[in-house]
Structures are given as structure tokens and as C-alpha cells.
């Protein structure tokens, strides 16, 4: 499936769903998002599917107004988010640490990938003989520091 431009059902702005994302949604058996990434308002979170207005959550599906995996009402969520000091470096570091600790309590996939052969790395799709790379697609015989034939824009990294 090719990447597609969609219109956000909330803000009516266009956004792109990449072909790799379609494969991911298909694999996870969830529908593609109807809201753009800005409108879903998820931050400091890990492995959320079809969630919006969530902060510091791990492994949630189809949720809204959650903070550190606890469900709040819309009003409670908005009040708590107002109390957070996102301008503070120490606050951000504290939140990162808290999410990291929370994430250890939940199972996590060893790797995300699809249609691969002989690959080592995370978020690799339709590739063969790839090592030490993350978020790449349609690659063959890629090992750092050689060039990658096709990568997801802005996300690719080889270490
Ligand atoms: Zn939107």
C-alpha cells in the first residue's frame, strides 16, 4: 500500500499516512487514524494505539485522558496537564524517568518489523540483510556506514 494523504477529522488539516504505517495498522488489526498526529495529543508515551490526550502512558489501546496509565475524566486530565511544568528541564527529566520506570512493568515487543529476512534492528520493513539500523524500509544489504537506498524521511538512523 502506498502512502496516503488524509484529512484530519478534527482540525481538517491534511496529514500523511506512510505505507509502513498502513502495514503496522494492518498487522496490529487497528484502523488507520482519522486524526492527525497533532490532534491526537499523545506525549511521553510508548506503544499507544489509537489513543488521544494521553500523557506518560505505556501499551494502551483506544484510550483517552490517561496519565501514567490511569484513566481520568476530561476535566481531571485537563486540570492535571495544566499543573505540569513543561517548561522545566528537571520536570521533563523526571517525567522521562517515570515513564521509563513504568514501561518496565509492561511487556514490550523485542522488535517491530514486517517482511524481513536476516535483519537486526527495530522498525525495519521489507528488507533483507540489514544490520544495526532503525526505521528503514525496502533496504537490502545495508550495514553502517554504507548508504541506505530508501528510508523513512527524517526517521532513519544507522549507528
Ligand atoms: Zn488534526
Walk me through this protein's architecture.
This protein is of the alpha/beta class. It has helices at 19-28, 37-40, 74-83, 89-103, and strands spanning 4-7, 14-17, 42-43, 52-55, 64-67, 70-71, 113-114, 117-120, 124-125, 128-131, 133-134, 136-137, 140-142, 157-158. It has two domains: 4-103, no CATH class; 113-158, no CATH class. Helix content is 25%, strand content 26%. It has a four-stranded mixed beta sheet with strand order 3-4-5-6. The protein has a three-stranded parallel beta sheet with strand order 7-9-12, covered by helices on one side. A three-stranded parallel beta sheet has the order 8-10-13, with no helix packed on it. The longest helix is centred in the middle third of the chain and has 15 residues, at 89-103. Zinc ion binds next to α2.
Amino acid at each position: 500500500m502506498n502512502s496516503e494523504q488524509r484529512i484530519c477529522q478534527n482540525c481538517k488539516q491534511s496529514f500523511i499516512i506512510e505505507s509502513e504505517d498502513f502495514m503496522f495498522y494492518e498487522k496490529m488489526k487497528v484502523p488507520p487514524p482519522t486524526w492527525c498526529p497533532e490532534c491526537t495529543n499523545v506525549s511521553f508515551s510508548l506503544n499507544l494505539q489509537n489513543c488521544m490526550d494521553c500523557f506518560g502512558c505505556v501499551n494502551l489501546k483506544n484510550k483517552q485522558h490517561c496519565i501514567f496509565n490511569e484513566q481520568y475524566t476530561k476535566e481531571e486530565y485537563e486540570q492535571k496537564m495544566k499543573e505540569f511544568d513543561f517548561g522545566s528541564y528537571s520536570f521533563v527529566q523526571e517525567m522521562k524517568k517515570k515513564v521509563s520506570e513504568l514501561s518496565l512493568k509492561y511487556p514490550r515487543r523485542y522488535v517491530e518489523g514486517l517482511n524481513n529476512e536476516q535483519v537486526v534492528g527495530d522498525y525495519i520493513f521489507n528488507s533483507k540483510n540489514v544490520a544495526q539500523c532503525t526505521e528503514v524500509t525496502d533496504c537490502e544489504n545495508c550495514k553502517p556506514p554504507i548508504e541506505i537506498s530508501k528510508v523513512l524521511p527524517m526517521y532513519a538512523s544507522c549507528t
